[in-house]
Amino acid sequence: MSALDRAAVERAAAKCAFVGKTFELHDELGSTNDRARELAQAGAAEGTLVLAARQHFGRGRLGRAWSSPEGGLYLSIVLRPTDEILRRAPISLLSALAASEALDAAGRVATRIKWPNDVLLDGKKIGGVLADLFKERDAATLILGVGLNVDTDAASFAPDVAQIATSLRAHKGAAVSLEETLRLFLGIFEGHYQSVRRGGGALILARASDRMATLGQRVRVRLAERTLEGKAAGLSATGALVLELDGGQREVVYAGDVEEVRPA
Ligand code: BT5
Description:
By secondary structure, this protein is an alpha+beta fold. It has eight helices and twelve strands. The chain has helices spanning 6-13, 32-41, 83-88, 91-107, 159-162, 168-172, 178-197, 201-210, and strands at 23-29, 49-55, 73-79, 112-114, 118-121, 124-136, 139-148, 218-222, 227-235, 241-245, 250-253, 257-260. Biotinyl-5-AMP binds at residues 31-33, 55, 58-62, 64, 66-67, 74-76, 117-118, 125, 128-130, 145-147, 149, 157, 161, 164-165.
């Protein structure tokens, strides 16, 4: 299995304007998001990148764990978005889109996005995004964490994850380059982020919507205090999920866990 070295990360970020210009590469870390947060608090520039070959306490959303064996890409990027950017497109959806596009190009596959932050292949999870937002002295810092199962041996996932996860390597039955996948992700992500900055959020949302696995399907959405069921009708102008409930009324969901409801 080919691990990344510093020269590979430099090559992968060479064409980027600000993402990955400064980076840390660790053999192992607790969580790249936690390390990136420390760097951000110490004043790290926007685009600072933290990578680890393995994580011991990789984090998902809502306190869940991210299985992080060797062969995956585990990275975090320090972002300092303006309120304007945060309003225009949810960065987790934009990042899931970039992750989906990068995996497709790296592995010649056709991944789908599961709103708001999952990337799926063959109905299994191949990538996830964790956006930690902090407000400090009126300025926002967003630590964007991305986990992609690239060259991961399926046998090395945590046991509870093995059934629901896949990797490019597992799907193709062949090794896949981490450097190439990283290069694709950083370039595509930076392009989408810049385009939202310039006001092109609608195009990004349209592209995300084209790849959404659940649009038009009946879904159940678990929110913090209640569960909704209805048809996933589309995305709002800011990337929220629009649900059509059984009574015909529409409900806009900003964050939650979506599962497809199959007809009995
Ligand atoms: C996510 O959470 O999908 C966000 C994952 C973000 C991970 C990156 S890695 C770099 C950075 N540093 C961190 O510490 N985290 C970020 P969520 O939607 O809550 O999904 C978590 C669920 O996905 C778990 O409960 C498992 O069911 C499943 N899962 C865990 N590890 C997985 C893996 N490697 N591949 C696929 N599914 C996994």
